Amino acid sequence: MRADLDPTAHAEIVAIRKAWRFLGSWQKLAGATLYSSCEPCLLCSFVITQIGSNRVVFAARGTDVPTYKPMLDCDLTKAAAWVNAQPDWFHLEVVSDFMRERALEIINAFPWSQAQTRETVDRPRSIG
Ligand SMILES: [Zn+2]
Predict the structure, then answer these.
(1) Which among 11, 26, 60, 71 has the fewest CB atoms less than 10 Å away?
(2) Which of 89, 6, 1, 92 is nearest to 45 (CA)?
(3) Is residue 58 a contact partner of residue 38, using CB atoms and an 8 Å limit?
(4) 85 CA to middle of ligand 1, Å?
């Protein structure tokens, strides 16, 4: 995200962009299952519902991440409950805690104190 200078470059968004470009149209993403190492945030959850993905499988919960800040006190499970109550939205199934223990090991090994700084990340400039 920082290295790409793109605040929307969350793993889920990057995966959806790549799948869309590979398949050639967003309609082909309808019914797809998206796998994520962590519960998608509200930004990613909205995009997932708009493309018609009908299943999300994730490992760690948002609350497992030390820097987690839920917007509107919402998470994917709550968003899916709202989406599934709408008559004209794609149905969204949410499967949580898939390989969660392994995800927690990785999260706990991450240097969170360094990740919280707002220091500028210099990007190497390409030549030519
Ligand atoms: Zn996200």
Answers:
(1) 71
(2) 92
(3) yes
(4) 23
Alpha-carbon torsion (57, 65, 42, 72), positive or negative: positive
- Asked if 34 and 48 touch (Cβ cutoff 8 Å), the reply is yes
Rounded to the nearest angstrom, the distance between the alpha carbon of 42 and the centre of ligand 1 is: 6
Express each pLDDT in 52-96 by its tens digit: 888 999 999 999 999 888 888 888 888 899 999 999 988 999 999
The widest CA-to-CA distance across the chain, in whole angstroms, is: 53
Q: Is the C-alpha dihedral spanning 36, 2, 107, 102 positive or negative?
A: positive
Going from the Cα of 101 to the center of ligand 1, the distance in angstroms, rounded, reads 21
How many CB atoms lie under 10 A from the CB of residue 96? 16
Element (H, E) at 94: strand 93-95
Alpha helices, H only, 7-125: 11-23, 42-51, 76-84, 100-109, 112-115
Angle, CA of 90, 92 and 97, to the nearest 5°: 165
* Full-model pTM: 0.81
